[in-house]
Amino acid sequence: MERENFGSKLGVVLAAAGSAVGLGNIWRFPVETGQNGGAAFIIVYILCIVLLGLPIMMSEFLIGRSTHSNTAGAYRKLAPGTPWKWVGRLGVLSGFVILSYYAVVAGWTAEYTVLAASNYFEGKTTVDFPRIFSELSANPWICTLWMLAFMVLTHVVVVRGVKSGIEKFSKVMMPALFVIILILVVCSVLQPGASKGVEFLLKPDFSKVDGSVILSAMGQAFFSLSLGLGCLCTYASYFGKDTNLAKTALNVSVIDTLVAIMAGFIIFPAVFSAGYELNSNDVGPSLIFITLPNVFQQAFGAVPMLAYVFAVMFYFLLVVAALTSTISMHEVVTAYVSEEFSMKRRKAAWIVTIACSVVGVFCALSFGPLSDVKLFGLSIFDFFDYVSSNIFLPVGGMFIAIFTGWYLNRKFVKDEITNGGTVRAPYFKAFIFVLRFVAPIAIGLILLNQLGVFAFL
Ligand code: PHE
User: Fold this and answer.
1) 23 lines ligand 1 (CB under 6 A)
2) What is the reported pLDDT for 279?
3) Which of 1-10, 150-159, 369-378 has the lowest average pLDDT?
4) CA dist 422 → 84, 197, 248, 425 (Å)
5) CA Rg value for the chain
6) How close is the Cα of 331 to the center of ligand 1, in Å?
7) How far is the CA of 19 from the centre of ligand 1 (A)?
8) How close is the Cα of 17 to the center of ligand 1, in Å?
9) pLDDT in tens, 215-262
10) Whole-angstrom distance, CA of residue 266 vs CA of residue 250
11) Which atom of ligand 1 is nearest to the CA of 95?
12) What residues form DSSP beta bridges with 374?
């Protein structure tokens, strides 16, 4: 079967950035920043991106591009007859699990877009929003239908293939996303009282940095960059020979980090301007579904039109950002099923969509009818979220670092990074050092700590 490639360099960067930029940036990042003390957390986060994120992303890129394979096939080709293929398979499993619950949250953003567009939020006050959200998340029909709708939307793009599906979609949607984000940042920062929010994001207080802040920053870096599950490895398998891997990784990381920080600049100035206190529950996981719609009403209430436009744009933005990410998770699994079981892409995509939808239904019901079902003390949704982002992704990332740093031939790695000696890589020694020592040790310690094996932080 002839394998597709991305058509242009811009397409490569925008598709990979589309995967990275998602609910992780706009929903999860502000929550983590709010709970971990603001500017100081952001600095630790950026350190994690540079020290761990960049080198591991480059490793995923080189593994994918050199083999032109799905992530499990890639390890099979580079390390035939060894257990390394299990790193790829773990990635496929992670993609499957994350897609199943991520589509539920994505579904909520779609429902909120519709609510915002039908002007449902007008005149609602602080007491109404918690109720609106808990009614939505407990409603089995709405949650399931939106989750399914999101799966189908994702399916439609993936089935069209890499160039005319994923690349084309990302090329239109990513620039649109930036424009919306910029408008929202400007609106938010201009609100009266917004400067306190700006200060929160820019003035670090390092006394707040402790072990758990570092943990959260690393977890957030992996999740946000789509790292550790072979997602970017799969995308890289469609890169051309002349794609500059280091530069692409740098571009994607910069875009992803900028979007996260800009999301902070949308949310915190608006939150402060509406008079919220940061140490309350207002900045918990419900931030974008309970606090924010209220903020829109409070902050722009005097100009209902503005409150309306702001809310519709914001939730639509979330839908788009989520979709370019679900596409990438779907692609990891679809490429695997199609190539490892020699199946037509269309058929493989259907199998993935149906299987993820079935698991997704359980996640969708996990706030309503199934809220009493507990796995290891967590609801189905929380269990999937915990296992995939806190365990699977870091474990995957650690093994990717070890594989590139220790297993692969160093000349081979250098050839890939420099495109056969045509681009310079003065940082190469440092890159290998990080992959061999820094990344595995740091991630290993943090994981052991997280699993409660021992507490060092
Ligand atoms: N990076 C995406 C986000 O920030 C989530 C994601 C994780 C996508 C893993 C693909 C793989 O929302």
Assistant:
1) yes
2) 58
3) 1-10
4) 30, 46, 15, 10
5) 21
6) 12
7) 6
8) 10
9) 788 888 999 999 999 999 999 999 989 999 999 999 999 999 999 999
10) 24
11) 11
12) 379
20 lines ligand 1 (CB under 6 A): yes
CB atoms within 10 A of CB 285: 14
**Contact, 25 vs 202, CB < 8 A?**
no
The per-residue pLDDT for 68 is: 94
Please give the Cα distance from 123 to 103 (Å, whole number): 30
Question: Residue 46 CA to chain centroid, in angstroms?
Answer: 15
| Ligand 1 atom 10: residue of nearest CA | 226
Distance, CA of 382 to CA of 273 (rounded, Å): 32
Question: Tokens 């679809």 label which residue?
Answer: 334
Does the C-beta of 16 come closer than 6 Å to ligand 1?
no
Alpha-carbon torsion angle 314, 317, 318, 319, nearest 10: 130
Residue whose CA lies nearest to ligand 1 atom number 9: 226
Residue 53 Cβ contacting ligand 1 at under 6 Å: no
Does 29 have pLDDT greater than 60?
yes
The DSSP output letter for 4 is P
Residues written for the chain: 457
Phi–psi pair at 131, nearest 5 degrees:
-65, -45
Distance CA 59, CA 281 (A): 39
Cβ–ligand 1 contact at 18 (below 6 Å) = no
Q: Is 24 in the pocket of ligand 1 (CB under 6 A)?
A: yes
Q: What is the mean pLDDT of residues 332-360?
A: 96
Beta-strand runs (E) in 297-420: 374-375, 378-379
**Strand bridging mode 374-375 / 378-379:** antiparallel
**pTM of this structure:** 0.91
